[in-house]
Design brief:
522 residues; alpha/beta; Rossmann fold; Luciferase, domain 3; GMP Synthetase, Chain A, domain 3; 3 domains; 7-stranded mixed beta sheet; 5-stranded mixed beta sheet; 26% strand
Length: 522
């Protein structure tokens, strides 16, 4: 296991490649010297706000050079960054802040007013857009003293927590996944080597920094002394917009959920052709199963492009990988998730095997990239783990896998009601719990439907005397509590929810009912 600290990547890149471009955003191109200086400036401001080693710092800002420098500035203090999506609903953002008890918050003035209630002291403006607000009770340091300087590089502690990523939780509350520098570095070192990323590459930064795919983007770019190019959220609306943004950025590496590229909507083939004519040399898909038929239609537009399929829950980082071959695409079978990354140890919970196949079981993951645990949720952490006979600690992914004829792992489905939509991990229970608060006398159930190979859709059913007649009314009620990607596409009123012989909601039957209702409503 490498004992490196993520912040050491930036110190090294500035020392060896100081004049090279580190980030190209809407404000211009910034060198690695600029990057280091800005991160040091952020670290000094955080120190003056009272931040110390082990503290949490929430960061919520649009994708930009300032955002990335804020992440590294936090890490330089041996503090832990907690990214909050800039467009997060206020209610959810406040829950994250309350749960992680940060010492400081780096964000815009608008977002600060939206997410923080009550007085704040002090506030130091970092740039035209971002400011630092002290949230902890620790007295701030004087603004004009040397005490505002960050620790020296040789005091970096890689055993500290590096970041906390909040995911959907089954109780209706966001759940923080804690990763150390050691777990992140294990993944980043392998990923950069596997893709052969170098100083001449440009990495398109597509995912929100609150999403685990961003770990490769932000830290892999600096590890390789490559250029990071943030892609604006508006480009995610269609494959054409995304392709044009990637081509304009001169990106050579793209890491994203497959549906972002493979969506077959208006003019998608034009976008695919533009990707084929761009500087892009590699696409890594992760976060959700690949639509095989769409991939087959996509491939002729990008014949020279290297394609990869990576797999791993937030709790493990990427733990399996598979370079996608033209044989895979022609075979017509599900694209494998492949084999274990060098730092990952895989096992299987055969007792929970399903699909009537003895070769199928729940995937368990151990190794250097495993999370430290869930933030302040020791019982939840223990429930998520399995210890084998020699005491090795495995994470229970909840994903069922089997091996194909080539011996490669293939994803089969989920153990529980956790789903992925556009790569975002969602607990359907959280949506139900949020809706239930507004309709206490009704029964509520959510499920996922797929129509004609399109992206999966969340739909909900409400049954009982309190059931609303207007789905749009329901959406208005939850818009401040659930992020947009968790909103049900349609909400249907039913006389009763289907039940199985045990009296429990029959979600398979519900899916069939709501799929039929959805088709009728279109």
């Amino acid at each position: 296991m490498s004992r490196r600290h993520l912040a050491s990547y930036l110190y090294d890149a500035a020392s060896l490649h100081g004049a090279r471009p580190a980030c190209a955003d809407a404000a211009g191109t910034h060198s690695y010297n600029d990057y280091l200086n800005e991160a040091l400036r952020v670290a000094a401001a955080l120190r003056r706000a009272g931040v110390e080693a082990g503290d949490r710092v929430c960061i919520s800002a649009p994708k930009s050079f300032s955002l990335y420098a804020s992440i590294f500035g936090t890490l330089m203090l041996n503090a832990c960054y907690v990214p909050i999506d800039y467009t997060v609903p206020a209610g959810r953002g406040r829950k994250i802040i309350a749960d992680c008890t940060p010492a400081a918050f780096i964000t815009t003035e608008r977002n600060l007013q939206r997410l923080i209630e009550g007085p704040l002291t002090p506030i130091e403006r970092m740039s035209d857009d971002l400011l630092v607000a002290q949230l902890g009770a620790r007295p701030p340091l004087p603004a004009d003293g040397s005490s505002g300087l960050p620790p020296a590089p040789d005091s970096l502690d890689p055993s500290r927590p590096a970041y906390i990523l909040y995911t959907s939780g089954s109780t209706g509350e966001p759940k923080g996944v804690v990763h150390s520098h050691l777990s992140a570095v294990a993944f980043v070192e392998w990923a950069v080597a596997e893709l052969g990323v170098g100083a001449d590459d440009v990495i398109a930064q597509v995912a929100s920094v609150s999403f685990d795919l961003s770990v490769f983007d932000v830290f892999g770019a600096v590890r390789a002394a490559a250029t990071l190019a943030p892609i604006h959220e508006s480009a995610m609306l269609s494959p054409v917009r995304l392709a044009r943004a990637i081509a304009k950025a001169g990106a050579s590496v793209l890491y994203c959920v497959p549906s972002l590229v493979l969506r077959e909507i208006k003019s998608h083939e034009l976008g695919w052709a533009e990707l084929g004519g761009s500087a892009l040399r590699q696409i890594v898909f992760a976060g959700e199963p690949i639509n095989h038929q769409a991939l087959r239609r996509f491939r002729p537009h990008v014949p020279g492009l290297a394609l990869h399929n990576w797999y791993g829950p937030t709790e493990t980082n990427v733990c399996c990988y598979h370079p996608i071959s033209d044989t895979d695409i022609a075979r017509g079978e599900p694209i494998p998730i492949g084999r274990a990354c060098p730092y990952a140890l895989l096992s299987f919970a055969w007792d929970d095997a399903r699909h009537g196949d003895d070769a199928a079981g729940e995937l368990l993951v151990a190794g250097d990239s495993l999370m430290t645990g869930y933030w302040h949720r020791e019982e939840a952490t223990e429930r998520a783990m399995h210890r084998d006979a020699d005491g090795t600690r495995f994470y229970r992914t909840g994903d069922f896998v089997s091996r194909n004829a080539q011996g490669e792992l293939v994803f089969l489905g989920r153990r529980d009601r956790q789903v992925k939509v556009q790569g975002r991990r969602i607990q359907l229970d959280e949506i139900e719990s949020t809706l239930q608060k507004h309709f206490t006398g009704a029964e509520i159930a959510c499920t996922l439907i797929k129509e004609n190979g399109a992206d999966p859709l969340i739909v909900a059913a409400i049954a009982g005397p309190d059931a609303p007649g207007d789905g749009e009314e329901v959406k208005r009620l939850v818009e401040d509590q659930l992020p947009l990607f968790m909103w049900p596409e349609r909400i249907f009123a039913l006389a009763a929810l289907p039940r199985n012989e045990r009296g429990k909601i029959d979600y398979d039957a519900l899916t069939r009912v709501l799929a039929a209702e959805y088709r009728r409503a279109r």
